[in-house]
Amino acid sequence: MSALVWLRNDLRSSWHSPLDYAIEHHQQVRALYCLTPQQWQQYHLAPCKVNLIIDRLRELKTELAERNVELFVIDSGDYQHTPQAIIDFCQQHNIQSVYFNAEYEWDERVRDKQFKKLCDEQSFNVAKFHDTCIVRPELLQSKQATPYKMFTPYFRTWLDELYRQFPQPQALSVASIVSPAAEQLELASYYQQTHVAAYSASGDDIYQQLSCFIAERAPDYGLTRDFPALDSTSHISHLLAIGAISAKQCVFMLQQEYAEKLNEPTHGVHIWLKELAWRDFYRYVMFHFTHVNKNLPFQKHYRYFKWNTDQAHFKAWQNGMTGYPIVDAAMRALKATGWMHNRLRMVVASFYCKHLMLPWRWAEDYFMSQLIDGDFASNNGGWQWSASVGTDAAPYFRIFNPTAQSQKFDLNGEFIKRWVPELSSLSAKHIHQPSKYVDVYKLAYPLPIVDHASSVANTKLQFKQFIELSQQ
């Protein structure tokens, strides 16, 4: 009897437990991916990410064929209709066993529960595997047998579990990961491609991207990761977001290269490993505290906090016209490339939440609509952290000074000049605060839309008063 591997955010042909199990135990294996354009629109999925998924499916068709697995793609509309669509597919192809990887967000869990119910009714064999996280969220809890709410104690336990249980699969050769030129896969285009042509979905490029980072840039990651003008980060976040790379593979390759360095807190490879743990942590939060899946802050009392709703400020922030060059450069780069440097994500988020005091949910949705690496758990967790309403959130009184951040991490204004060309004639001294030194109107650049000192003071006051009222 043949088997089906239901693909989700795990679009790869190696480091894939459901696929490996199916191939080992069944003579005929098919793979299925369900396009859900209505769900994508509901989640504000970026056009560039949708196109990356489509491109990756074209490449994956060839990669899976090399393992004698045929890939099928169907349009199931949304999650509500996906379970029945898969049942229908199985019946049409005489399939009795279905394998897939767990997902931890609420809507995905509801979908999977419905699918399991339908499979039981049809007497189908269904098995769930756990490749999504490096360490499964069910395995970690505090000494009080409760879920962690803070990252630091979570990370300590996560590391213990990683070193105790992390599997050590046989090292893979490049040939087992890369693929030749992809065949054309006939897929409908539900989104118009607007940008981001430079991101490759081929197995060859994916593997080279990861291996080059680990070999060349990972050791210095802790020293260089905060400087946006440098090419010092991994640039694999979009591949992790669609599962073209396994996070477990990342850990395995780190262990292969730097086993003796992984426990050194200041070493670049340990710092990058911690970034992978943050990815797990935000899924852990989604799994254990389900209200954060539903547009609610982790700290529930903050649902009553009154944010500013100034649409002009929101549009200025979106369009990179705030009068703060580092913020504007970052937002323009996001719109043009579909990606933003992690340091800049923190800077623009702090400015948005603590200078403009705009609703963090607006920004969460906007980022998802732009990011090629949009990841619901990480995006939600990051915005709640910046707004001081989430788990392990930044204290409300810790607010980035965007000018100081600019001077520290883009000292000569290289990144700013790349994305805010109207300021390219300014010196390194003047470019971080142009309105202080030149007539910005002549440069067609705006004055700052808010004053740093007064907006920060107002934010601190608003939070302080809200907290005092909440404790009464």
UniProtKB/TrEMBL annotation:
It catalyses: cyclobutadipyrimidine (in DNA) = 2 pyrimidine residues (in DNA). It comes from the Bacteria. Binds 1 FAD per subunit. The record marks 307, 360, 383 as: Electron transfer via tryptophanyl radical. Residues 1-134 form the Photolyase/cryptochrome alpha/beta domain. Its EC number is 4.1.99.3. One of its GO terms (biological process) is response to light stimulus. The keyword Flavoprotein applies. Signal peptide: none annotated. It is an enzyme of class 4 (lyase). InterPro entries: Crypto/Photolyase_FAD-like_sf (IPR036134), Crypto/Photolyase_N_sf (IPR036155), Cryptochr/Photolyase_FAD-bd (IPR005101), Cryptochrome/DNA_photolyase_1 (IPR002081), DNA_photolyase_1_CS_C (IPR018394), DNA_photolyase_N (IPR006050), Rossmann-like_a/b/a_fold (IPR014729). FAD binds at residues 221, 233-237, 272, 275-282, 373-375. The keyword Lyase applies. One of its GO terms (molecular function) is DNA binding. Its cofactor is (6R)-5,10-methylene-5,6,7,8-tetrahydrofolate; FAD. Gene3D superfamilies: 1.25.40.80, DNA Cyclobutane Dipyrimidine Photolyase, subunit A, domain 3, HUPs. Pfam families: DNA_photolyase (PF00875), FAD_binding_7 (PF03441). Transmembrane segments: none annotated. Belongs to the DNA photolyase class-1 family. Belongs to the DNA photolyase family. Involved in repair of UV radiation-induced DNA damage. Catalyzes the light-dependent monomerization (300-600 nm) of cyclobutyl pyrimidine dimers (in cis-syn configuration), which are formed between adjacent bases on the same DNA strand upon exposure to ultraviolet radiation. This is Deoxyribodipyrimidine photo-lyase. It comes from Paraglaciecola hydrolytica.
